[in-house]
Amino acid sequence: MNYSGNILTKKRLNLEVREPLGLLAKTIILLVSVLFGLSISIFILILSGVNASDLWNEFIIYIFTSQKNLSAVLVQAVPLIIVGLSAAVAFRAKFWNIGIEGQMIFGAIAATFIATNDVGPESMRLTLMFLAAAAGGIGWIILPAIIKIRLDVNEIISTLLMNYIAFNFLLHLLYGSWRDPLTGFPNSQQYDTFENLPLIGWQSLNFSIVIALFLSAVIFWLFVFSRFGYMLRVLHSNANMAQSLGIRVGILIFLATIISGALAGICGFAVSAGIESRMTQSFFVGYGFSGILIAFLARENPIGILIVSLLFSILVIGGQSLQVFYQIPFAMVQLIQAIIVMCVAGSEFFIRYRISILKR
Amino acid sequence: MDFLVFWLSNVPSFAAPFALGVLGMIICERSGVLNLGAEGFVLVGAMSGAGVLISLGDYPLSAIIIAGASASVLGLLFGFLVVLLRVNQVIAGLIMVFLAQGLTSLISRNMGWVNKPFSGLGRLDFGFLTDIPFLGPVIFGQDIIVYITILLYIFSFYFIYRTNIGLQLRAVGENPDAVDAAGGNVILLRFMAILIGAFFLGVAGGYLTVVVAKIWVDGISGGRGWIIIALVIFARWQLWRSIVGAVLFGCIEALIPRLAAVGVQLPQYFILMLPYLVTLFVMIWSNLKGNNKQDTPLALGRPYLREERH
Amino acid sequence: MPKITHQSHLIEMEKITKSFGDFLAIDQVSFNLTHGEIHALLGENGAGKSSLMNVLAGIYAQDEGQIKLNGNTVDITGPAMAKSLGIGMVHQHYKLVSNFSALDNIALTVPHGAYQSGIRDLRKIIISKMSEIGFDLDIDKQVGKLSVAEQQRVEILKVLLGGAKIIVLDEPTAVLTDEESKGFFKTIKLLAESGAAVILVTHKLKEAMNYADRITVMRGGQIIDTITPEDLSEEQLISLIVGEIIIDEPNLSKDIGDRKISLQNLQTTSHDGSIALKNISLNIRRGEIYGIAGVGGNGQAELASALMGLSKLETGAILLNGHGDISSMRPDQRRNCGLVYIPADRQKYALAGQLSLTENYAISGLLRHEFGSWFKVNSFKAFEKASKAFKEYDIMGVRNLNQKAASLSGGNAQKLVISREFSSNPSFIIAHSPSRGLDLRATAAVRAKLCMARDNGAAVLLISEDLDEILLLSDTIGVINGGSIVAEFEAPTARHDIGKAMVN
Asked: Where are the domains of chain C?
């Protein structure tokens, strides 16, 4: 090659990992991406015929001015909070628990068993159902946990497969021996009154919100103050270092997945005994993914989970009224959730990498 | 005997969407891109296929092609997220599912496609061949897509294992550094794999509406996308094994209505569970035996970044 | 052997400079290559040899300087461009697809038309090339199942069939046996005779002397000299490589106690082509710093990993006074016996960048149950202890202890690691390249801490590729080469003798 005089300059696009950004910068990027996602969503809604000012009414005024709607938001937020916590605990241990729905199912199955078979004295019934639900959830995550830790079997697939097995087992029960003898419909018998989570006196809010808040506090404490949480943080930040320092990584992951399974099982109980008052064949639908998306947006922070769950719940309740007044299908809510999460996920690119142009 | 014929002649119809879907997934994942959004691509294909038939007229084959194409459009978005923005592939896949569920529900409602039956695509009749007792209906009485699927598998085998692009595709899923050093374009290869994979998943979805159900409702894919994901693992990313898996699932799915029609009272849900139990068992077994890492494309799930400093 | 004439060289690199951030890797280096020669680029690790060759191969872009090919200035914009110019590099870490055959791996990089038809012709070309250069290979076998030497041959074939006339080999014999090395050099000679020019990046003196036409010695990012093997004796060459720097008086222990650790015949197997420990046997006493000198890649990392319990031993015993054989203990159990580890790669093994400084410091204390209970971590106590430690170790760049560990600069991050590891008053310290990448001040501080620990009665195993550091701190020096301890010296020792054991 022969160049007379200067060397030809060529530009090359270079992608490299950047120095970690400060909290302020990351928060700004997060907020910008959420706003971006919301804008796209609003745009789509307007395209579908929704009046822009009505949007403000529906989502904000309507919900916060009507006690009935406010309580509906809170009631819907409860299972979202619990599955969010479940996903978060697993994520902290780098375990993708896609099997939340399966664990919910077995939690509800265990609780329903206690209810329909009248196990234990009436005063203890709910407590027993609660404990059974937790055990059910644990039982359904334990196999994927063990085969992941010992055999390195991909937990995404194994927990997913367990979902399908659980779902079919549920149908087997509901269309079979557990079918409601009174109505003949494929759901369980209705629970006795004392087997339902009691209302706490304001609108339709039931005791499950107390459970959800209690669990949030427990998980918060676990993450922030306990030794377990500290070790989890180290594992999450640098797994090699955790091992080198002598942290028993296998046991840590096992405990985290157990807690995650228990939470999912409890959620199954909360929905069945709190909202439905029986075990139905679709009570769990959608909660698995919602939980994962919530945990992702909240970066597994329990306080963040409370906030994001509330927001998701507002979207759901608002979406229900959009359905009534504008014939917007409920799927719009899913779409909006997906768009916002997509924008946030995409924005991570700008947090993690820096594009520079190299001149040679 | 009749039972057997009825059952087996329905198997290909149930197996075809699985076969098509797994083919697409294998191509995509062989390039190193983990695609958990399969359910979403199938849904998009299903809706588009139905939409064409309802709004444009009786063009079943075009409907299926458009089904594939529209899933590819979603695939572009997916590729943008995971290949360019290096978003975590698990989250991106889940986002695709959610996005597709929302979009298909919305669009189908707006366009009035919901719950409108159409004639779709029927089975072929090869005349005397189809009339051969027993084998006739099973081998010669299928719709054209089934036969095309078989052809597609043959072409794909050739494409993946006997062309340069196929070589690069497989290399990118094992060691993208090597491809980059050899002058190949990792980004382009992965995009191509994602688009082809999405296309086949869309065709699988289109098949569900155009050929099997002949109607569209929300969520008609019924979780088959997830089964396809499990099937890829079951098939260990190999073409012939995926046909086995697809046929296996097809047999089981085709069995249920047959059993009910004959009045047999078997624990139907346990039969439905079988495929998942089998897949789980296979996964555990193969990891126990220690050959777990061998079949998984080495670079699966990891975004590629060429750094200046090694 | 070609004479050095004044006609244009095949390659001329003039005044090449390259920095990575603050680190000056190559400093005004000029290097040339003539047709048909075997040119050894000799020096220790970190001398800049690989970086220089990466510039030639288009992987790095130089900051200053220019490259000429046959007298014409060229701008090497990337690996593809280098390849088109006829420059081919065989890296230390092979870029092979392990479940492809050798044939397919070569097909990936060498154009051959359409696959189905072209592969048959490619096969013939490969076979004829192999007989031309005198080696043998089953090109249909999965590359992952080939031996490391065979994998290297695949890489060489890739480069040759890609049309390379200039072949750069980066530490090619590092993972080969003696027999395999002989075979390798036979090939190289044939290559040179057929008209290619070969650059051999190596630290192995004897190989350079036996096989190279010219030798260029690099040290500290600079060219020291370019000579022919006849010009100098082996001893003189060693001096060029390791330098004649007079360092400070070594800081020797004043009080060496009885035996603390005994490593007996440690062996490991390697699964990925990295070096295996063949026979490590040594003893370390209380109040002693045992320095392991050696060129990087001879088993240092494997030894550290095996001692900490992060990798398995094939055979051998690690006897720790008062605890017996600890070789089957988990890392946490070994730490309970008083072991601590300052790893070479602190980003990977010793720092959690996303966690706070306090958390990074206190984690080991936490595992010793020093900060509160399972239920509640006593973060106040942890904070106090961390503050004290940070002052004691003079860790700078700290606005407050809650900032992320990733915000600390190299030297201060290392001090953090050391302060944490020493917080348990360990009796056995494994320090691997403790001052790598640190500035003078930080280096001095780190070394002072090691000596302090030693003076307090700890046994220290210091693994370092920096010979100055070894000489400065060690009471006893063992040289690791090819996975074994090949020589042992008591301080004070001549630099020269150590260097000799390192490069042979």
From this structure: 11-242, 257-338+426-504, 348-423
For C369, half-sphere exposure in the C-beta direction (CA atoms, 13 angstrom radius) is 4
Query: How many C-beta atoms lie closer than 10 Å to residue A325's C-beta?
Result: 13
- Taking each continuous run of H as one helix and of E as one strand, the counts in chain A are 14, 2
Q: Does A282 touch chain B (CB under 8 A)?
A: no
Per-residue pLDDT tens for A338-348? 899 999 999 88
Residue A213 lies in a domain: yes
pLDDT tens digits along A133-183: 999 999 999 999 999 999 888 888 889 889 989 999 999 888 888 888 888
Q: Which of C502, C493, C494 is nearest to C466 (CA)?
A: C502
Q: Which CATH number fits domain C11-242: 3.30.565.10, 3.30.450.20, 3.20.20.70, 3.40.50.300?
A: 3.40.50.300
Q: What count of CB pairs under 8 Å joins B to C?
A: 53
User: Does residue A41 carry a pLDDT above 90?
Assistant: no
Q: Give percent of chain B above pLDDT 90.
A: 41
CATH number (domain holding residue A258): 1.10.3470
Q: Are strands C166-170 and C87-90 parallel, antiparallel or unpaired?
A: parallel
Q: Identify the structural domains of chain B with CATH numbers, from first to last.
A: 2-295 (1.10.3470)
Instruction: Let me know how many helices (H) and strands (E) chain C has, helices first.
Output: 17, 20
ipTM of the complex: 0.84
Distance from CA of C14 to the nearest CA of B (A): 22
Rounded Cα distance, B38 and C18, in Å:
47
> What are the tokens at B49?
């296929």
Domain count along chain A? 2
With respect to residue A4, please indicate whether it lies within any of the assigned structural domains.
no
Report the DSSP beta bridge partners of residue C142: C101
Query: In one letter, which amino acid is A149?
Result: I
Provide the CB-side half-sphere exposure for C250 (13 A, CA): 22
**Is the peptide bond between C492 and the residue preceding it cis, with omega within 30 degrees of 0?**
yes
Give residue for tokens 């149930």: B14
* C134 vs A342 pLDDT, higher one: A342
If we measure between CA atoms, which residue out of C200, C172, C164, C197 comes closest to residue C82?
C164
User: Does the beta carbon of B292 lie under 8 angstroms from any beta carbon of chain C?
Assistant: no
A303 and A360 housed in the same domain: no
| Residues of chain A with C-beta less than 8 angstroms from the C-beta of C377 | 225-227, 230
- Give the mean model confidence (pLDDT) for residues B100-129: 82
Q: Is residue A205 part of a domain?
A: yes
This prediction has a pTM of 0.83
The string of pLDDT tens digits covering residues C190-247 is 888 888 899 999 888 888 899 999 999 998 888 888 999 888 888 888 888 877 655 5
Structure tokens at A243: 């091992």
Total Cβ atoms within 10 A of residue C179: 9
Name the residue with tokens 């120095």.
A19
Q: CA separation (Å) from C5 to B69, C227, C325, C460?
A: 65, 14, 63, 53
DSSP state of A99: T
Residue A159 and residue A234 in one domain: yes
- Beta strands C197-202; C38-42: pairing state: parallel
User: Tokens standing for A240?
Assistant: 């090699």
Q: Following DSSP, what letter does each residue of A159-171 receive, concatenated?
A: HHHHHHHHHHHHH
Q: Which CATH architecture has domain C257-338+426-504?
A: 3-Layer(aba) Sandwich (3.40)
> Residue B166 corresponds to which tokens in the numbers above?
């196929």
How far C9 CA lies from chain A's nearest CA (Å)?
A: 15
> Would you tell me how many other CB atoms lie within 10 Å of the CB of residue C369?
10
Name the strand (E) or helix (H) holding A357. strand A353-359
Helix or strand (DSSP H, E) at C31: strand C23-33
Chain A CB within 8 Å of residue C308 CB: yes
User: Which residue of chain B comes nearest to A166, CA vs CA?
Assistant: B273
